[in-house]
Structure formats: structure tokens, C-alpha cells
Amino acid sequence: MGREQWKKIWVGSAGNMVEWFDWFVYASFAVYFADAFFPEGNATANLMNTMGIFAVGFFMRPVGGWLLGRVGDRKGRKAALTLTVTLMSASAILIAVAPTYAVAGYGGVAVLLIARMLQGLSVGGEYAASATYLTEASAPGRRGFASSFQYVSMTAGQLFGLGLQIVLQRTLAEDALHSWAWRIPFIVGALGAGIVFYLRRNMLETEVYAADDTATADPRRGTLKALWAHKREALLVIALTMGGTVAYYTYTTYLTKYLSNSAGMAKPTASLVSFCALFVFMCIQPLAGKLSDRIGRRPLLITFAVGSTFLTVPIMTLLRYAGSFWPALGLALLALLVVTGYTSINACVKAELFPTGIRALGIALPYAIANALFGGTAEYVALWFKNGGIESGYYWYVAGCAAVSLIVYVTMRETRTIDLHRVGKGGRAASGRRPEGAERASVAD
């Protein structure tokens, strides 16, 4: 691909990296700053309160999906992407400068709560805005490859956050991390958001959006009323997201805790397993995306769903008894290889379901709802089963969610050859391709 195409991929996906860096460092550094915002006393209660504020971000994601999806459909993809990164920067700065309890009492908690609400809004809109932009800005035969970089950037953000945590833990004293150094990752996040804002300020609108002659004429663009006209596709997004998001959170954010708490693995070893598995997972996303451009989206989605339905229980059971680094890494890589069938292409599949005038909102709101219901609750459900003495019940829960999505993947139509310019009413697209010259025009700078 040419330099301009790579630039579009980088600008379109970079916000995800910053977003997930911020999301990760809040959760991982909470153990250091929880006591700073609440009265001295019960450290566990303080941490629970801090993580309760973290949970607010998940509830704000559907709101962000609605608001920023509307902006993306009415004002353009560039406007939505610029707004999301502005919210990112604001939330990171607020946390970095938030006053402690000793300085402002519960005023610091209020600042923390506002920051998490802004972060939830941003995450809710960033996914759909970047998914829409990456899909529309790519040549028809490269949409799967280009959109796969969404999860490359998301995983890179998590790895960068984990790497920064390891560096700070190894170079600074514990007291320094508790007193002031916990602010460092949020300063880094704010700087990263500033860089992405600068890059996005000069980005071009996608040709698919610019060529839509209803961009300013239709007052229903980006509205819930317009989305209701495509309710079948919206429900489809929720259903196809259900199994993928539960599996993704299980083998990424929950994996380290599972290996240390359930498998009895040392925390440093469990962290290393997660780091190595996530790095390989990040690298294989473009390969799977490119494969989908050749054989279609449904074969990869079906492979993921079949694998998750029938392999989750044995993989999670074997992980519990892995005992050491290499067996655990092998099982984690197998699980993430299966999940790649979903993560590498889910962005473009959702974008290919909707017409231009409702594409951003059509992705944003249903995805945010599915993520809040299933992805955001995955860790809680896992711990609920564990606390009830039936931890294996969670394995079956993950497999069941994948089975529901499998039904959807088997019955849905192939979207690889859909012409984004000609998605018809009801979300059904013309399956044929446009003339070659028209395809080239859709990705012209």
C-alpha cells in the first residue's frame, strides 16, 4: 500500500492506542492512588471505591456511542475522531492533576468521577469513529486488513501501559508510587492524546462520506429514529459482538488475575505470560484481516465461534493446572488465535452492515451496549462464579455466549464484497462491485 494509505491507518487507529493505554493504567495503578482520594483506614474499601468510579466509565460508553456516533454521521468522521481525542486528553489531564483527599477532601473524588465519565464517553465514540473511518478510507479489497489495525492499536496501548508499569515498579520506591509517581502514566496519556489530536486535525474526510449527497439534506442522519429503521442490523451488531467481547476480555484483562488467583502462578510469571501472548496476538491481527479480504468475513467469524464454543472449557481447565510459563503461554496463544477470528475483522463487518448516513451511530450504540452488558461484566461474572465455588461455570458461560454468536455468523450474509456507496434501505447492500474506476475514486485523497 502507498504512504497515504498507511497514514490513514495510523491516524485512524492511533486514538485507540491512547484510549486503551488510559483505560489500562487507571485499573492497574488504582492500587497506588486509591488511598490518596479517600480517608485513611480500610485500604480494601478505598480500592473498591476507586474501582467503582472505574465502572462508571462502562455505563458512559453507550452514551458516548450515541453522542459521538451522531456527530460522526452528521458532521463527518473527522469531526468525531477529533472530538474523541479531545475528551481523551481532558480526562487524562484531570486525573493527573486531581487533588488528594488531604488537599481538597472529596473534591478529588469529584474530579476523578468527571474524568472517568469523559473517558467513558470517549471510549464509547472512538471505537465506532475509527472503525468507520478505517473501513471507508480503505480500498474495497483491503478493508479487512486496514480495520484489523484497530485491535493492533488497542493491544499496543495495553502493552505500553503494562510496560510503563513494569519500568516504574523497577525504578521507583513503593512510597514514591503511592505519593506522586502514579500520576506519571496519566501525564503520558495526555501527551499521547495531544499528539493524536495534532495528527487528526489535518486528516482528510473519507470519500465515502464526502460523496454522500444526503450529508446535509437529511435531518434524520445520525438520529435514533434513523437507527430504528435499521434495527435488524443494530441487533445483529449486538449479537455478533456478544461472544467476541466476552472471549476478548477473558483472555486479555482477566487472564493475569486468573493465572495468579486460580492457577496459583506467581504474579510476575502471570504478567509475563499475558505480555507475551498479547504481543503475538497484536502481530497476527493484520494477517487475519488480510485473509478475510481473500476468503470473506464469515469463515473467520465462524471459525472463532466454533473454536470458542468447543475449546473454551478445555483451555480454561488446562490453564488452571498449567503451573509454569511455557504451558500457560501455549494455551493463552491458542485461545487468542481463536479470538483473532473475531477481533481482526469485527470493525469492518459492522461498518459494512450500515448505509453511510447511519454507519457511525449504527456501529457505536449497539456495540457499546453489547460491550457494557457482556465485555464490561465479564470479570465480575468470572469472580461471581469463583466466589460461589463453581468457577467452571464461567467457562460454560463464555462458551454459551460464543454459541449464540455462532448462530448469527452462520445465518448472516457475507459482507466482503459490499459496496459502501450503495448500501440500500434496511442496511442491505448491493453485493456486486462497482466499476473499477469508481472503487479507485472512493479511496482517492
Number of domains: 1
Distance between the termini: 14 Å
User: Could you give the order of the helices and strands?
Assistant: HHHHHHHHHHHHHHHHHHHHH
> Percent range for helical residues?
over 70%
User: Regarding CATH, which class?
Assistant: Mainly Alpha
* Low-pLDDT residue spans: 425-445
Outline type: globular
The profile of the biggest β sheet is:
none
Pairing-aware structural class of the strands and helices?
A: mainly alpha
By DSSP (H or I, 4+ residues per run), the number of helices equals 21
For the record, the CATH architecture stands as Up-down Bundle
What is the alpha-carbon Rg in Å?
21 Å
The CATH superfamily appears as MFS general substrate transporter like domains
- Give me the count of strands: 0
Strand content: under 5%
Any idea of the CATH topology? Growth Hormone, Chain: A
Average pLDDT rating: 88
Quick overview:
It is found in: Cell membrane. InterPro entries: H+-coupled_symporters (IPR051084), MFS (IPR011701), MFS_dom (IPR020846), MFS_trans_sf (IPR036259), Sugar_transporter_CS (IPR005829). The chain has 445 residues and is mainly alpha-helical.
